[in-house]
Amino acid sequence: MMRTRKNRIAFCALSATILVLSSQLSAYRPFVYGVDDASSKLAQADNAVTQAFVAVEAAQEAGANVSALLKEVNDANAVLAEAHTASRSGDNETASLKSDQAFNTVQNVFSEAESLERSAKYDSQARLVWTALLSSLGLSLLFVACLFGWRYLKKRYVRQALEMQPAKVDQA
Amino acid sequence: MSLGDFKLLYAASCVLLGLIILSPTLAFVVRLPEGERFSELYVLGSEHLAEEYPFNVSAKGVYRVFLGVGNHMGVLEDYVVYVKLRNQSDSLPDSVNGRSSSLEPLFEYRVALRDGGVWEKEVSFSLDGISRYGNFCRISGLVVDDYLVAFDKVAAWNSRTGGFYYQLFFELWRLDGTVSAFEFHNRFVGVWLNVTMPT
């Protein structure tokens, strides 16, 4: 009787253990990178790096110093090239990981480039206004100086002409 | 000098001075014509000269060339250099119509360059899985910068020159900002390889 009861308890414990283990094992699914996943990540990284480059280009056109941002774009470019090569070789896991890495590298570049572009445009406008103002002031001063200078030089020219001795003509 | 001539000289001097004073402002507005815009793509041999290019290659050797890109486009440019391998019957890029080769790239390099910038890279490569059957040679892999790319490329024996010839070539593509896509920039360079069998 005792023996049967012990067996039942052992059987129940074993069943419970198997149930728990099987539920744990069924919950575990190894993550496999698919072609679609790699392709979409690659497209996302491509898009992000292109946008970052276009933003950096615009910032440079505006006159900003983009050396640091260009380095980040090139870091992303190097990783993205590896992602593309891995994707072509069918190594979807590496392609996905490298795409993520490239995407993360340029994540802040776009906003930083935009901010640099804005400040460069503002600086450029301010420089233009100041240069134009100083040029106008210089031109006005030059105009006045030229008028006074002309009056002075004209007077001097006439005085010198009047002081000239007529040449003697030998009539013999 | 008459008073009229003196007046003319004085006026010309004043105008010249005025232009000098205006020049910083004019520099903001007036754009001077720029020189020719172009990109350069070059490949140099192992001694960093336009000689000593690898030619007779076998499965055991690791070979190197220097690949360079120069930007003289006047603006920042984003480039891709595709590495491709062809046999004698595969198509080359069509430089007349500006079309790239139809072959799939095996490897690629990407670089963004500012105007006047030059990028150079030492490219090391080796051939993997060379086999010969009859008058044909098969390569099943190319190792570029320690990265193995698997593919299958067959070359027929060239009886005229006596060899199995492949060409490793590099195509230059640049980002077209208006469509946000890379387009062939009509530049390519390459090195011929004569594949020899291991003895």
What's the quick description here?
The complex is a heterodimer of chains A (172) and B (199). Chain A has 172 residues and is mostly helical.
Helix count of chain B, per DSSP? 1
CATH architecture of the largest domain in chain B: Sandwich
Which secondary-structure class do the elements of chain B indicate?
mainly beta
What percentage of the residues of chain A does DSSP assign to strands (E)? under 5%
Helix/strand order of chain B: HEEEEEEEEEE
Highlighted features:
heterodimer, A: about 170 residues, mainly alpha, B: Immunoglobulin-like, 2 domains, about 50% strand
Describe the structure.
Chain A has helices spanning 2-27, 35-61, 67-88, 92-105, 109-163. With 172 residues, chain A is mainly α. Chain A is rod-shaped. In chain B, strands 1, 2, 3, 4, 5, 6, 7, 8, 9 and 10 form a 10-stranded mixed sheet that branches. The interface between A and B is medium-sized, with 38 and 32 residues.
Write the layout of secondary structure elements.
The complex is a heterodimer of chains A (172) and B (199).
Chain A: H1 2-27, H2 35-61, H3 67-88, H4 92-105, H5 109-163
Chain B: H1 3-29, E1 38-44, E2 56-57, E3 63-72, E4 77-87, E5 107-113, E6 118-133, E7 136-144, E8 147-158, E9 163-176, E10 181-195
Parallel strand pairs in B: 2-10
Antiparallel strand pairs in B: 1-3, 3-6, 4-5, 4-9, 6-7, 7-8, 8-9, 9-10
